[in-house]
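Hi team,

As requested, here is the filled-out complex form for the iron/sulfur cluster run. I kept the field names the same as last time so the parser does not choke. Let me know if anything looks off before we queue the next batch.

— J.
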Amino acid sequence: MTTGSRQTVIPITELEQSAFCRTDGNLRTLTLEEEFQAGVRWQKVPIRYLKMSPEEVSAGIASARNALGDQVLMLGHHYQREDVFKYADLTGDSYKLSKLASERRDAQYIVFCGVHFMAETADILSGPHQTVILPNMAAGCSMADMAPTEDVEDAWDDLTSVLGGQDEIVPITYMNSTADIKALCGRNGGIVCTSSNAGLTFEWAFKRAKRVLFLPDQHLGRNTALKMGIPEDEMIVWDPFQRLGGHTPETLRRARVILWKGHCSVHTRFTTGQIQESRDKYPEVNVLVHPECTRETVDAADYVGSTEYIVKMVSEAPAGSVWAIGTEINLVNRLANQNPDKTVFCLDPVVCPCATMYRIHPAYLLWVLDGLMAGLVINPIRVEGQTAIDARVALQRMLDVAG
Ligand code: SF4
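And here is what came back:
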């Protein structure tokens, strides 16, 4: 079976999100059939994978890895569930993994345990002899889905017709967007950013134009602009469901930062109330959150930074310190396990993983590895033609700016 790059990204439903949110703090491995029964709509797999016990899946993956050897490089994002993350050869956030994909030219197959936009980026940056595989094609990102290609193209046409050309506005897209949106940025003088280098890309953009269109996460865009000293009254939110994004031409001309109306459903769960509760319980607590959180949450926290920054801060903290973290639960649990001399906990008392990251069940991993053993490439991610060329331009600008 072969599949193209832009397909089968199934949006998460509230049912699916709530199916995996637990108050008992327990994210145990279920069989794939049990996870299907929880009410989710994932990519279909051959029936035998549904019934396998976690132990059978684990033994199958170990044996396939052994047989395939260096042909396969497995990349694991920090938000992956532990029962998948443990198989990764290399781990990191989306920026680190995209750099690794551009540097590791030896493996023929890159199995990307993450979400769709990450696998697309890996395909764009990897060599032509390499194939990127996403174990479950339904592992998308709800934030990336909030910026569909047609809506962004329409918005860009509207903005440039009101504002003028490239010295008036530069598009910046967060890594968490489709290859189409990265390509739109590449061919319109724009750039890609991650949460660790968003500030650098804003500086880069303001040397070239008076304004920035930031896609698709309004919170990362707002938090970055505020940190650079841009007041909130110079920012507007573009609502794709309204004419001219809900603004007049005059308002658009006055704005310096135009924020796409998108958000992360995981990071917007963290609130100032949760921060206050953690301070009440642990007066010495360090509150550390991701910049995809809302402005209010970021303002109330002690530290703000990317996923890699969060890992570094907690790992290097002194023994006995207390950390309340506002990011995805699988990473927080892992940090707690890796730092038993510190108190590390999630700001949100309800254990609620990123539902799309969670779609990479170990049985899917076994399925694609079994495919490779049989000479079959299941779920290749390919970004073709001009889209790949233009997206690579925007990604390369980021790599040049951020190193
Ligand atoms: S944590 Fe948020 S931004 Fe990251 S993959 Fe999940 S939904 Fe997308």
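Two things worth flagging: Residues 267-346 form a domain with the Rossmann fold fold (CATH 3.40.50.10800). Confidence is low (pLDDT under 50) at residues 1-8.

Thanks,
J.
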